[in-house]
């Protein structure tokens, strides 16, 4: 069994934000597989399942995502696959990795802190802008933190969907392939 956690913030206000890319991936996957999320307060998340995979969308704020990861680990005994936005990866691209640090991502740091390990698989969804009119938005003094808490621009729709579809393809590959095989295929 694999436990997959998509990171995001739980309120309606943040639904379309870049920082909710983990939720966006799981929402697309749920639509394709015709599965539905149900609230599971004991695990601090909305939970869905398909085959030998569980999919979780934490109901905590992003920076407390580790609460969900720890509760799921305690119940199922497997380290999660974590899907999240990465400002260092170009919009439309996806990278897979294993056992890295948090890279400044507070949601990932929360998971590392609560699990006591960084040895879990990650699907990093690129959100770095490629359009000239947005590139300055991630520079000081505004900084990328503010940028991540805003929706994608309408002209970014195709690249956004490209990245989300690629992340869903990674999840589909994980149903039958090892982490190493998936990293070789998608990186």
Please provide a written account of the structure:
The protein has helices spanning 21-33, 65-76, 106-115, 132-135, 143-148, 157-174, 179-186; strands at residues 2-6, 38-40, 45-50, 53-58, 81-90, 94-98, 121-128. It has 187 residues and is of the alpha/beta class. It has a 7-stranded mixed β-sheet with strand order 2-3-4-1-5-7-6, sandwiched between helices. Helix 1 crosses helix 6 (157-174) and helix 2 packs parallel to helix 3. The chain starts with a strand and ends with a helix. The mean pLDDT is 95.
Give structural attributes.
187 residues; seven-stranded mixed β-sheet; alpha/beta
Q: Can you count the beta strands?
A: 7
| Shape, principal axes of CA atoms | globular
Please give the alpha-carbon distance between the first and last residues. 23 Å
Estimated radius of gyration: 15 Å
The DSSP helix count reads: 7
Low-confidence stretches: none
Order of helices and strands: EHEEEHEEHEHHHH
What level of helicity do the residues show? Answer: 25-40%
Broad structural category: alpha/beta
Order of strands across the widest beta sheet? 2-3-4-1-5-7-6
Strand content: 15-25%
Task: Give the rounded overall mean pLDDT.
Answer: 95
Main sheet makeup: 7 strands, mixed
Topology:
Blueprint: E1 2-6, H1 21-33, E2 38-40, E3 45-50, E4 53-58, H2 65-76, E5 81-90, E6 94-98, H3 106-115, E7 121-128, H4 132-135, H5 143-148, H6 157-174, H7 179-186
Parallel strand pairs: 1-4, 1-5, 5-7
Antiparallel strand pairs: 2-3, 3-4, 6-7
Helix pairs in contact: 1-6, 2-3
What's the short version?
The chain is of the alpha/beta class and 187 residues long.
């Amino acid at each position: 069994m694999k436990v997959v956690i998509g990171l995001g913030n739980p309120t309606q206000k943040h639904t379309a934000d870049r920082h909710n890319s983990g939720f966006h991936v799981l929402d697309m996957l749920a639509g394709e597989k015709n599965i539905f999320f149900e609230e599971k307060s004991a695990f601090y998340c909305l939970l869905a399942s398909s085959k030998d995979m569980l999919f979780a969308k934490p109901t905590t704020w992003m920076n407390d995502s580790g609460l969900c990861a720890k509760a799921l680990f305690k119940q199922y005994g497997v380290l999660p696959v974590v899907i999240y936005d990465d400002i260092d990866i170009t919009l439309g691209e996806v990278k897979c990795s294993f056992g890295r640090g948090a890279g400044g991502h507070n949601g990932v740091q929360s998971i590392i802190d609560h699990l006591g390990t960084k040895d879990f698989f990650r699907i990093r969804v690129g959100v770095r802008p490629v359009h000239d009119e947005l590139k300055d938005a991630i520079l000081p003094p505004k900084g990328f933190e503010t940028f991540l808490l805003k929706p994608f621009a309408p002209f970014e729709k195709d690249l956004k969907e490209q990245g989300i579809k690629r992340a869903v393809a990674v999840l589909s590959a994980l149903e039958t392939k090892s982490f190493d095989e998936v990293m070789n295929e998608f990186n």
